Amino acid sequence: MPTNGLDKALKLQFGLINHESRYLTAEAFGFKVNASAASMKKKQIWTLEKDERDPQVVFLRSHLGRYLSSDKDGKIGGGAEKPDAGCRFFIVPQSDGRWALQSEAYLRYFGGAADYLSCFAQAIGEPELWSVHLALHPQASLLSVARKRYAHLSASAQEMSVDSDIPWGVDSLVTLVYVEGKYSLKTCDSRFLNNDGKLLKENLHTTCYTLGLKSGKLAFKDCDGRYLTPVGPTGTLRSGRCSKPGKDELFDLEESHPQVVFQAANKRFVSVKQGVSISANQDVETDMETFQMEIDPESKKTMFRTNGGSYWTLVSHGEIQSTATEVQPETKFDIEWRGPRLVLKASNGKYVCTKKNGHLSAVSDSAGDDELFLMKLINRPLLILRGESGFVCHHKSSNTLDSNRSVYDIFTLLFSDGAYHIQSVGGRFWYVAPSGAVCSDGEGPQDFFLEFLEHGRVAIKTAAGGYVRGDQGGLLTGDGARPDASSLWEY
């Protein structure tokens, strides 16, 4: 369901962990289902789908596009192409946040271990309880279902307020931190939301929440059994009095698009402050100088949205204005990456240049100094990367990085004149070793360049021209020849 006309709630994807700490797994061979995996990879990710006519009924779709099902004898299958009667389940939430899954058709409960899974239990015991591990990228915008407003770090930086019409700027980024079955909410300045609404530097038991689900929406239950809710006129996010989630306690997660500022060849920031014309004429960065990048999944062309909801668009005589209210051919731009700078090509095939009065116009046949822009990503001070095989995480016993983990490490992204420095724990930096491996213990920073190539995906280019990729052994290397599936990262 679109929210505020801006975006759609993310489809809930997760892993289900049984009482033996093993993940529910869908095998390609015979569409068999087991609970044997110790970590969450592609085969352990399930997508929750709701029945349009009965919101209490859910379907579980595997990475193969097939559905979990049960027959009258409790036999479990993972090969249903379409959700039939045997695929219909109720989620029965427990007080500790775990789920029981009950077949709608036979009213039996699903559980078991290893290869011995069935849906035949008449009552809920330990084998029928499943913990939920979200599989979507953990950085998102948090939308209150009742208030239809977004959470953000307040202007005083003392609380999270749920009073923003659109999730704009770095303050609106929320990072979900998963630890031992519970989630913490981390602000853009690396503090954790306590259940009393305060922001703490340490992650304590009072900053950890059990994830609940109701009608496809999320709820966060604290250590005292109460739920997070917006309170008061500014929507201070804190635990309320309710021990059962109602509409006020429900939230959607929405994809957090990259938001950027541009500096033109005249060293001034591109802005919409002066009206509809897009001009490089400002010396400070505000919401008026911030633009949201939205990449068309099919054409890979990029749209730039203003904080007022309009798009950059090509108008007569090549001028770029912010008058488009919906996506059309004139709002789509090609980006050509030039290391620390970039150039933009409009739908007329001309390059965008900065005129002497600061106005942006697509009138150039070739790209020179006047067509170069510096672009800075502002809403990812904390960087979490997920590739085709899993998350990027420190290796347990060396200075290298893994690219295939089910848990993630949070890195700090620092901007430096068009390049980025990636900082690990302890203030050390990423660098590419002579072997090609990306290491995380550099005493000084090394330049990396971000190229936003696909919807929700970024490529990371090294100073030597290689792309950061995950190799087949799960090692993060900096020797990719070109951007492909192994070197495109959710961020």
Compact summary:
The chain is an all-beta fold and 491 residues long. The chain has no helices and 51 strands. The strands form 19 sheets. A 6-stranded antiparallel beta sheet has the order 11-10-7-6-3-14, with no helix packed on it. Strands 15, 16, 17, 18, 19 and 26 form a 6-stranded antiparallel beta sheet that branches.
Explain this structure to me?
The chain has four domains: 2-134, Trefoil (Acidic Fibroblast Growth Factor, subunit A), CATH 2.80.10; 139-255, Trefoil (Acidic Fibroblast Growth Factor, subunit A); 259-377, Trefoil (Acidic Fibroblast Growth Factor, subunit A) (Trefoil); 382-490, Trefoil (Trefoil (Acidic Fibroblast Growth Factor, subunit A)). Helices cover 0% and strands 46% of the residues. The protein is built from no helices and 51 strands. The strands form 19 sheets. Strands 11-10-7-6-3-14 form a six-stranded antiparallel beta sheet, with no helix packed on it. Strands 15, 16, 17, 18, 19 and 26 form a six-stranded antiparallel beta sheet that branches. A hairpin with a 2-residue loop joins strand 47 (448-454) and strand 48. The protein starts with a strand and ends with a strand.
Count up the domains: 4
> Structural class from helices and strands?
mainly beta
Low-confidence stretches: 1-6
Tell me about the largest β-sheet.
6 strands, antiparallel
Rough shape? globular
Cross-sheet strand order for the largest sheet:
11-10-7-6-3-14
Quote the CATH topology of the largest domain. Answer: Trefoil (Acidic Fibroblast Growth Factor, subunit A)
Mean pLDDT comes to 94
Q: How far is the N terminus from the C terminus?
A: 23 Å
Report the CATH architecture of the largest domain.
Trefoil
Number of strands: 51
For the CA atoms, what is the radius of gyration? Answer: 24 Å
Helix percent band:
under 10%
Percentage beta strand: over 45%
CATH uppermost class of the largest domain: Mainly Beta
